[in-house]
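Sample entry was shown:

___
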Amino acid sequence: MSEIGTLSLERLNNGAHFLFISNVLVRAEADANVKSKLSAQIVSLKTAKEQEDEDLKISQKSMLTDDIATADAERDGLYSGYKKAVNGFKNLPVENMAKAAKVLTQHIKDYAIDPKMQLDKETGLLMNFIDDLEKKYSSEVQTLSLGAFVTAMKAANETVRTLTATRTDERMAKAVGALKASRKASDEAYRQLVKFVNAYALIEGDSKYLSFIDYVNTEIVHYKREVIGQKSGSAQTSGTTGGTTSGGSTGGSTGGTTSGGTTPPSVEIEA
């Protein structure tokens, strides 16, 4: 008799783990036989998968947290406004102001700061850029009355720098802990689904569940080879029924319905 084999879910990296759980869930929901008998287990797996998805997004969130993104947008706006202001002075019929604008325009070109560049690179360039404006080009800034721009840019850039530098280990630990917990919940929901599929296959015969069993086993073989690095050619079964499944892939739903009313025995399946 065919049954779903074992996979060390704990050994999968976060992305692979989420994809495996998602793939199994999609196939379970699409298989009429599995869905008709195991709706509660499928709902549990879906709930666990959705929570894992949320925690995975949080754990992978880059340095651009919401606060950093807001501060970054503010400084980008100030930098853009500063450039426009300098550009507006270039054609003034006032010699000293036009000359100052020309000097500052070249300064802008020299740094070539792009608000779309990598966050920390932009922060570092702006620190030096602003330092120049406060020292080397202070007279030009004063001539064009751009001191307010410089002060505001400096404050906004410092906010970004501080936020990126002080994200606490505690916050990251919470994100990692949450993902660990949600992965564990997904593992348990998956194992329950596997246990019941194997139990029904034992009770009713595996023909109604063979499509789903073969699909999951093919996924297991793939993840063992490509993600974990095992060289096994097929999915190992638990030995409860003594069978070993092939790793062949099959299509989707078998489209049938199962007979109701049978309660599966407690079959311990390691997944």
The first helix runs from residue 14 to 30. Residues 236-271 have pLDDT under 50 and may be disordered.
